[in-house]
Amino acid sequence: MKSWGAVGLIAGMVWLGVGLAMGQEAAPTVVRTTQPPARVYDIGVDVVAPQLLPMQWPVIAPDTCKEPKEGLVSLVLEVDADGVSRNVSVAGAQGTTLEKMALHIVNMDRFKPGTLKDEPVAVKWMAEVTVKGCFATKTDDAGNTSGVFRLTAQPVQEFGATARQKESAEIASAIAGVTPEPGLSKVGNAVFPPAALNHVEARYSDEARIKHIEGVCLISVIVDAQGMPQNARVIRSLGYGLDEKAIEAVKKYKFKPAMKDGKTPVPVMITVQVNFRLYERPN
What we know:
Elements: E1 4-7, E2 10-13, E3 40-41, E4 47-48, E5 51-52, E6 66-79, E7 85-90, H1 97-108, E8 111-112, E9 114-116, E10 119-139, E11 145-151, E12 156-160, H2 163-176, E13 191-192, E14 195-196, H3 206-210, E15 215-223, E16 229-236, H4 242-250, E17 255-256, E18 258-260, E19 264-266, E20 268-280
Parallel strand pairs: 3-10
Antiparallel strand pairs: 1-20, 2-20, 4-9, 5-8, 6-7, 6-10, 9-10, 10-11, 10-12, 13-18, 14-17, 15-16, 15-20, 18-19
């Protein structure tokens, strides 16, 4: 029997089916022999995104084949420090002809690599590829015929941050936009941050569970000199009743208070990150 659960936790404080062809015919799987990069970076302020190098794919006229297909395929990939695409996969793959074609296209792409401080590095990326094609008839040397999928237009590729990268950027922006209340100490220098002494799981609302809503809710809260949370408020909302569930959980936290000069407890404002993720329990 399948059931759904949620995980709420404190994570930080302010801190084709027939003979697929690419162009003409399907190419054999490319086997990479070089070692993978030691580290793969997220694209951000310090990491510059790669640039796709121009490439023309062979196409045929739409009226020379049958069963036209067109669609948008979303993929995730890594671009290594040599500008080669690696670990390409389709988001929510169903094994369709268009997905296989998009996989082949991105696997064959070459890039000007991403950089960190002007040095080439491997990065995580997301691609959306629009594929247009149809099935043509291929006859082999023995006279056997088969359907081969061919492009009828150049693929259109758009690249951007992955969903996780976008979420991380939104979280960082929301935290940066929080203005501490007057009279509170500021974490840093001589003030050490509070530390959570317990963890209270944030529960899913019925509406959010039914609609399979996931994401991160940010709660701004004052941790007083006794280590108790006060004045909890939402600074990044998820809606569907999850904001209220996040506040309900955070109010039950207990902290070791922030310490000034390592000996005097002081009140500070922090941001608590509450993750809502659905998971499927095994039978």
